[in-house]
Design a protein that fits this description.
With 122 residues, the protein is mostly helical. Helices cover 63% and strands 0% of the residues. The protein has 4 helices and no strands. Helix 1 runs antiparallel to helix 2, helix 2 runs antiparallel to helix 3 and helix 3 runs antiparallel to helix 4. The radius of gyration is 15 Å and the shape is elongated. 33% of the residues are buried.
């Protein structure tokens, strides 16, 4: 896990830790429902941004990661025309799975988390 400037969960309730974990974990809905991977953390961020710095930081981090993943998917889909994109898409899915699980567990444990290779757009 990366060092971060995100607030720690000291004094955060279990509900807030669960919401922070959901901001990461709900992105898996994106495999079933288009854009749910972006909408889930966005909704949590918009609802809790003024109530919990911990939840807000995790939701914003998840949102930034999902936007970056969406951009990468589009680029790799275009590159799949020449073949290399297919390999990159598989690697991207594995990368996303690993880091979303790590982020979800960190949030659940009340720890900050920063995704690697992520554009900070939000």
């Amino acid at each position: 896990m990366s060092e971060s400037t995100q607030p720690s969960a000291a004094g955060e309730s279990e509900e807030m830790k669960n919401l922070a974990a959901l901001a990461h974990g709900l992105v898996f809905l994106g495999y079933l429902v288009p854009f749910a991977n972006v909408l889930a953390p966005l909704i949590i961020y918009l609802i809790k941004r003024d109530q919990s710095a911990f939840v807000s930081a995790h939701a914003k981090e998840s949102l930034n990661f999902q936007i970056t993943q969406l951009i990468a998917t589009l680029v790799f889909a275009v590159l799949s025309v020449v073949g290399v994109g297919c390999v990159l898409l598989v690697a991207q899915v594995v990368f996303e799975l690993v880091y979303v699980i790590r982020a979800t567990l960190a949030a659940r444990d009340g720890l900050p988390f920063t995704y690697p290779l992520t554009l900070r757009l939000v």
